[in-house]
Design goal:
With 279 residues, this protein is α+β, with helices and mostly antiparallel strands. The chain has one domain: Hypothetical Protein Pfu-838710-001 (Beta Barrel), CATH 2.40.320.10. It is built from 9 helices and 11 strands. Strands 1, 2, 3, 4, 5, 6, 7, 8, 9, 10 and 11 form an 11-stranded mixed β-sheet that branches.
Length: 279
């Protein structure tokens, strides 16, 4: 068991942050990779989970290139007896078994698989700063790209956050479901218990019904589409509804394109006609 000393930073400028960490000698550990994740409920009732835990789940994760991990994460709710609960506790093993084999093992032990998820991750390390374990960038379906930093101690983490001059208002110590709640207004139960599939193709269908501000949601999907195309994952996209503004823009663009095409066609036709008359 280990405690994850990590923080997530929301609402970042990706290119700006990359330039900053490169000045510290950051090296790319692996480029954007699709992770497949199966999330399981613990052997506790939903009421027990809500009463005792801020976070509790078990997952099977395919990190690409044959790396499969089985992980349980827990974070108790604060109480008179429990005060040291800022960070999540993690129990993890790595296996050579397949993603499907690991899923079936947990199902055979009567853990209930509540969702299948996908995300993209890019990982950096800083060889000359071993106190910073890793820097990752994550893209989850329907969320803006965000950053996560893991360090050896809380002081190491805070010092590096300060060095990068990141706004304290954007620093979090939670899980991804809380970001869906904060950014899109989706209730935690809707993400944790009522979203069986969360991938880039189904995100619009799965989440639109829970979102308060649909214009904001569509804007995030537009930005996400740009990143996925930039990083070579356009094939993962699908089912995204355009905003009225974008739809109107594309309509005008297509109208101009078709008009230009028709004009060229007519010009060639008239030119041929006049050529025949001359002969």
């Amino acid at each position: 068991m280990s405690t994850e000393i990590e923080a997530q930073i929301l609402f970042i400028n990706y290119d700006e942050i990359i330039n900053k960490i490169k000045k510290y000698g950051a090296k790319l550990e692996f480029d954007w990779t699709k992770f497949r994740i199966a999330i399981f409920n613990p052997c506790l009732s939903i009421n027990e989970q809500k009463e005792k835990y801020h976070t509790i789940f078990t997952r099977v994760r395919d990190e690409g290139k044959g790396k499969i991990t089985i992980t349980t994460k827990t974070k108790l709710k604060p109480s008179a007896e429990i005060t040291d609960n800022k960070f999540v506790k993690e129990y993890e093993i790595e296996t050579t078994n397949s993603f499907e084999e690991c899923k079936n093992l947990l199902i055979a032990n009567h853990l209930n698989m509540k969702s299948y998820q996908e995300r993209l991750r890019q990982k950096w390390i800083i060889p000359n700063k071993p106190e910073i374990k890793e820097i990752v960038f994550d893209i989850w379906p329907g969320l803006p790209l965000y950053m996560e930093i893991e360090a050896k101690t809380e002081k190491d983490l805070n010092d590096f956050l300060s060095d990068l001059e990141l706004s304290k208002d954007n620093i979090r110590y939670g899980g991804v479901s809380s970001f869906y709640n904060e950014i899109l207004g989706i209730e935690l139960d809707k993400i944790n218990q009522n979203t069986p599939i969360l991938d880039f193709k189904s995100v619009k269908t799965e989440l639109e019904k829970f979102v308060n501000n649909k214009d904001k949601f569509y804007k995030i999907l537009d930005e996400q589409q740009k990143y996925l195309k930039q990083f070579g994952y356009a094939a993962l996209l699908g089912g995204k509804k355009q905003s009225k503004k974008q739809s109107k823009k594309n309509s005008k663009k297509n109208s101009k394109k078709n008009s230009k095409k028709q004009s060229k066609k007519n010009s060639k036709k008239n030119s041929k006609k006049n050529s025949k008359k001359t002969k």
